[in-house]
Amino acid sequence: MWQAGPMADSSPSQRPAHLLAGVLATAGVLHFARPEPFDSLIPRELPGSRRSWTYASGVAELGVAASIAVPRTRRLGGLAAALLFVGVFPGNVKMALDYQRRGRPARERWGAWLRLPLQWPLVSWALTVRDRSK
Predict the structure, then answer these.
(1) DSSP character for 2?
(2) Residues 58-90, buried b or exposed e (16+ Cβ, 10 A)?
(3) In Å, how far from its chain's centre is CA 40?
(4) What is the reported pLDDT for 21?
(5) What is the 3-state secondary structure (H, E, C) of 64-124?
(6) N or C end of the chain: smaller count of CB under 10 Å?
(7) What DSSP designation does 47 have?
(8) Domain ranges in the chain?
(9) pLDDT, position 112
């Protein structure tokens, strides 16, 4: 059967992969389009500028998105996405604590705290994508 290209697999079992790739690509682009919110997640203890870390994490998200979008690299991409979600968890904890300490509006504080348990379904989603890859 003829396929249009490396991402031509649109079977129902691959739709979660395509959606995850889109979510990661969107987040990666946001690191460049609106870097300020991401800068505040970077711990001061890390060497270099916060903006450099923001851009580097945006590149990582775009790279992982691309690896998930391509069937040949999807298995590795799913694992990389799971590791990425685990890796950014400390930044999300920092954001929740910072919002609490700085007296941010209640809606923002609640959003930051509620975001934490949502990381684990993202990890699960990424591992499901890995496991369903061909």
Answers:
(1) -
(2) bebbbebbbbbbbbebbbebbbbbbebbeebbe
(3) 16
(4) 98
(5) HHHHHHCHHHHHHHHHHHHHHHHHHHHHHHHHHHHHHHCCCCHHHHHHHHHHHHHHHHHHH
(6) N
(7) S
(8) 14-132
(9) 86
